[in-house]
Every structure is written in C-alpha cells, then in structure tokens.
Amino acid sequence: MIRSLHMENAVTIGSDGPDAVLAAYGWDSEIAARFAEVERAGSIPGRVVAEYRGAYDVVIPQGEIRAVVAGRLRRTGSAGERPAVGDWVALRVSPDQTIALIEAIIPRRSAFVRKAAGENDRIQVIAANVDTVFIIDGLDHPPNLRRLERYLVVAFESGARPVLALSKADLCTDAATAVETVRSIAGTTPVHAYSIITGEGLDAISRYLCPGTTIALIGPSGVGKSTLVNHFVGAPVQEVREVRPGDYRGRHTTTRRELFRLPSGALIIDTPGLRELQIWDGATGLEEAFADIEELADQCRFSDCSHTVEPGCAVLAAVAAGRLTRERLQSYHRLRQEIAGTPRRDGRGFSLRGSRPISNSRAAPEGARPRPGR
Fold first, then answer.
1. Would you say residue 17 has pLDDT above 60?
2. How far is CA 65 from the centre of its chain?
3. How would DSSP label each residue in 60-122?
C-alpha cells in the first residue's frame, strides 16, 4: 500500500501537491523531459529510495510504495539496466495500490558502478543520479592511497563530483599530515578531515548538502558512513557498530542501499561497505584521477609512450626527479591494465560518459612513434 513519507526522520516536505513531493527528491525539468522518453499510458514517475532482494521502495507523488521490476524489463534488461537506489523510474501502481511495477528506468545523469564481486562480466550499479560522491576513509589507520586512487577512478567515471572525506579525525594524532598525504594523490578533488565526536570539519562537509542535491557515501565497512548519515538526519536511522579491535575492519552493519532526505533538503545515499571495488569501465575516470600523469604524458617524446622503458619519457623523468612517486605510477599501470582487461559482453546502459576504449598494449621503444618535431 502507499505509505506516507518521512516517518523515520520527520522531515516535512510541504503541502504544495504531488509535484512538490517529487521536487523534494530532486525532480526537475530535465528529469521530466527524460521521463517523457519512456512514459507509457498510465505510468507515473518515482524515485527508488531503498533496495531489497527482488523489491524496491519508491517515492511517488502520492507517497512511498513497494515495487517490483516488471517481467519484460527483468527479462530483457542487462544488470546495468535494473533499478538502483537513486534511479528515477516509470512505474504503474496496482488498482488496489498495494504494489507497483517498474516498467522503465528514466535515463540516468550519473551512475557509480563496479564489476560485480566474484563475476567477470556483470555490472553492479551502486547508486544512480548522484551529484557528489563522498569517498569515506577512516583516520583511525594510515590512509590507503592506492585504494583511494581506485575509488577516485570509479567516482570520476560515474559522472559525479568526488570528495575525499576522512572520518575519525579525533583518533588521528596528526590529522593535518594525513590530509596532506591524501592531497598528494587527490589532484583537484577536495579533501576534508572530520570527526563526529568533536565536530571538527563538519561545517566543511555540510556545505555540500544543498537542497535537491544527491550525495552518495562510498567506502569500505567501518569507516563511519552510517554514523555520518545519522548525524545529518538528526536521528539514528541507521544501525552502527564498532570496528573490530586490532585490525579496524568493519562489520557490515549496513545491509542495503538506502536514500534519506535530510533536514537541509539534500538527499544522501548510504551504501554497505565494499570489500572490493573492481572497475567496470574507467578510461575517462583514469585520466581524471591521474591528471598529473596524463599531463606529463603529453610531454613524452613518443605519442604512444607506455611510461615503462622509452627514452624521452617525461613520466619516468618525473619519477627520477622525485616529482612523482614510483608507487603512484605503478598504481596507474595496474589500474590501466585492469580497465583494458575488463570484459564487456553487454554494451547497453553502463557507459554514461562515452568513455573510449583503453589499450592494454605496450609499445616497444623501437616501434614507438615520435611526436612531430621530437
């Protein structure tokens, strides 16, 4: 049946009618135009706010309703074309208003995706139609730069804006140094350290919570994603647990993806901790996450330089001069090879930014093509 909204956090939307309900969840003229592309007679728009096994909670103009995927979409759609939290969908409510059928996904603005864990050829959409991705890592242990680089590649590829948010600053003896260490691989991506306990840094994080903006929290278990949600909602809507003593690993408290509307009017998507983040598609994301290496590559003698052994390689020269760490270059090579080797058997619906294929070949120096004039 159709349920009234916001029983959990008592956020008031207003009384301006059904359009105001959808607008409170990010509906605008662009999404309305995209809805018109998939609209069928009798269908209405809605936004997916929670995902369960085989079912979804969807906000519609009349409230919130449980929904399932229509058989046609389930049979013909690829994994990347199934609904995810944050998706806008076209659905049809049953006559008795007990359930709805999702008939189509409104074309996405962005999507944070990964290769499904343990499977080589299936995409998994973590969150859709996200404006900003908070990549959360805890300062109760030294920053894992290689993991953060991987998350940045996927975040940039999603089409959303990444922000590196370092939680538990109160547990770090030198948070300022930790932030500078992370900034060394962040490029233009903002980096913020914060603490829910002391309140340090929360004002900077709050500036991203603009009305109608959707933010997704991404990161491993135990870094404080759900704690941050509870803080911004102002109520314990998500269960939280302590990390395991000794290894600081999380306990997978959050078991489903869910979207919450905050008192500020922003929308925040909490996600379960990711044990692994395998890249599905990332050529564009790699270029943006490693913009420093891409900029150096433009100065290499050979246009197809692999940055491994070629003479006149500006990237290797930067490593030798100490302007680029060898570990960062190795990370770039590993991620590049992973992206090049990812099978994509179903080309529908997952490449949102028109990323071009990335080559896994390494040109030998004698076969390399020099740039004009070099």
1. no
2. 25
3. ETTEEEEEEE-HHHHHH--GGGS--TT-EEEEEE-TTSS-EEEEEEPPPS-EEEEEPTT-SS-
Strand partners, 270: 258
Q: Which residues pair with 267 in a beta bridge?
A: 214, 261
Say how far apart CA 35 and CA 189 lie, in whole Å: 32
CA distance 270 to 254: 8
Q: What is the pLDDT of residues 236-289, one digit of tens each?
A: 888 765 654 554 444 445 568 999 999 999 999 999 877 678 788 888 999 999
3-state secondary structure of 46: strand
Dist. CA 37–CA 343, nearest whole Å? 30
Mean model confidence pLDDT for the chain: 85
Q: What is the pTM of this model?
A: 0.85
For residues 194 and 200, the answer to whether their CB atoms sit within 8 Å is yes
Distance CA(176)–CA(192), nearest Å, equals 10
What are the chain's domains? 18-105 (2.40.50.140), 111-270 (3.40.50.300), 283-367 (1.10.40.50)
Half-sphere exposure (Cβ direction) of 4: Cα atoms closer than 13 Å: 9
Q: Facing residues of 132 across strands?
A: 161, 215
Q: Which residue has the higher pLDDT, 109 or 342?
A: 109
Q: What was the pLDDT predicted at 79?
A: 66
Which tokens hold the place of 328?
A: 């960062």
